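Example record used in the benchmark description.
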Amino acid sequence: MPEILNLVFFKKVYSKAKFWQMIGRGTRLCPGLIDGEDKKQFYIFDFCGNFEFFRVMKKGREAPCQTSVQERIFNLECEMAFKLQALEYQTDELIPFRQSLIDDLVEKIRELNRDNFAVKQHLKYIDQYASKEAFRVLTYEKTLLLADEIAPLILPYKDEASAVRFDALIYGLELAFLAGNKYKKATRDLNKKVRALADISTIPEILEQRELIQKILHTDYVKEAGIKEFENIRTNLRGLMKYILLDEITRYDTNFSDKIVDTKWAVSDLDDGALQNYKAKAEFYLRQHQDEEVIAKLRSNIPLTPEDVKKLEKILWKDIGSKKEYEKEIGDKPLGVFVREIIGLDMRSAKEAFAKYLNETDLDSRQIYFVNRIVEYIVRNGLMPDLSVLQTSPFTDKGSVVEIFTDLSMWNGIRQVIDKINSNAMIA
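Model output (structure tokens):
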């Protein structure tokens, strides 16, 4: 808001980009704000030592990536809509259920504020998926694209937070059911919540659901449940979750008067140029210019020519900033690796690279699962320089590399494909 004159930090901020984004909200000009005078300055009240933190930690420290509940629900609905396309789910019960998921997804996309800065960067995809027709046929690649480009923008739900979290829990169980998996942790969480409701059954709304609660706690209702039963649980119990919160949390209302002991005015020693953060500018440029020839080649796993390298150097070392700025913030990372890590690898190109193993070789289900996880990882991250990630989930969900590929010559071939994808980015 241009009218902001006082900016208050009442929380720790570890991301330098977010820190300056917050400060940027106070930098917007506002003519005639005070008695006809233009806005010339604004004050920052930092109660949590953020300026001191960034004086020591020049690049900040990225906090663990956490997904909001509305983002999780959006992704769960997308994945269910994808799964429900299978012939076995074309029933009188599940066809309208899939349509209801699509209706909700489209509604959430249409709610986005197109004037918002973050939303503007993704308008291409928002326009593409703002119609129900776009969801008529979903591919796995589209679910990944929706998760990357739109899900983080989804607005918070207006319902009770406890009800929305319960929606996410049940949707997780429904997706597990469609995938043929046993979601044991979610089942335990559901039983815990329902048992908590049973303990406060003097509340009339809870008592009305006595039969359903007893089914969940004392029969195989959940174990044998399908989409219809899970939706029955979700729609009937979501509104009751607020009572568990009231039972678990003690609320204190306070009315303190703060006494100002001392005030100290300080000017940050972070130079104003930090507002023009090189990495942030580079990331924005690369995401917006993925159709530019040299960037498109990197995204499509096409080796660069010496002429392409010069074009990339011009973009990163002249158009966006200087070579000195690049080395200061990015270090000695090859230009191609830096670009790939931001824009990822095109799904079609990744699948083409592994086509021999996905289409032509007689792989078993575990091997196909493993190769698909590699493809998904490279699509998201652009390359796979550290093969130690293959020793972690989800790669190890079906077994280790040695257990899955008893024929090591096949594994060596897959590894060569990974090395080739990496080498195509190891330039400049």
